[in-house]
Amino acid sequence: MEGKTGLVAGVANRNSIAWSIAQRLAAEGARVVFSYQGERLRGRVEALVGELEGDHLLLPCDATSDQEIDILFREIESQCGGLDFLVHSIAFANKEDIAGHFVNTSREGFRLAHDVSAYTLVGLARGAAPLMERNGGGSIIALTYLGSERVVPNYNVMGVAKASLEASVRYLAADLGPRGIRVNALSPGPISTLAARGIAGFSEMLKAVADRAPMRRNTDPAEVADASLFLLSDMGRGITGELIHIDGGFHIVGM
Questions:
Q1: Is residue 171 annotated as part of the catalytic site, yes or no?
Q2: Predicted structure pTM score
Q3: How confident is the model at residue 192 (pLDDT cuts 50, 70, 90)?
Q4: Given 36, 119, 145, 171, the catalytic residue
Q5: Does 119 qualify as catalytic in the annotation?
Q6: What is the DSSP string of 85-132?
Q7: Residue 150 is part of a domain; what is its CATH number?
């Protein structure tokens, strides 16, 4: 990744999958631009970025605001010129719309989950595309989960939003491919992040995967980082519109 610059959106703390990915990319020589939402998160992300070697950037952006996305990419253009990759690791749903029954999802909760978890990919990809074209192309990845394909207890509207995210990946891949930009999704098994711990019964999810996955263990964040490196680098240059599971094979198990 020497000489490459990219944006990582979605680092909340040390346990974030996005942080594992960013560390791996930086270790391979990439310059990473970190976006954060609000001053509450700035201190946490700033402390993490300070641990990395190299010249990295920290910029504010609420990805649900088109205005803030525009400002973000103007700043990236000013300080970096072009862009080579984008990591989307943003998701949110109201707690009351995840717990209980999906049929009880509120209209506003449904809209919010899709706006934050799916549409932000579209907005960021639209902003990144011209800067990637300037560099001769680029690669975008989004983080999803098996709850988009199968019913997972207490995932509910987030699963539906992740299905929207995965469909967006395919349509973006078709739109941006002629411009030399690849778009893919990674679907890790459950990992103990800040967001995941808000899901009721999360510890049971971890145990179910470790008990039933062909590899009989949970997913290591470093495995997600390695797969991200593959897709974001020239090694993945022939792959776009794909969904790659990193879950020890859990997604193939029927019973």
A1: no
A2: 0.95
A3: confident
A4: 145
A5: no
A6: EEEE------HHHHSS-GGG--HHHHHHHHIIIIIHHHHHHHHHHHHH
A7: 3.40.50.720
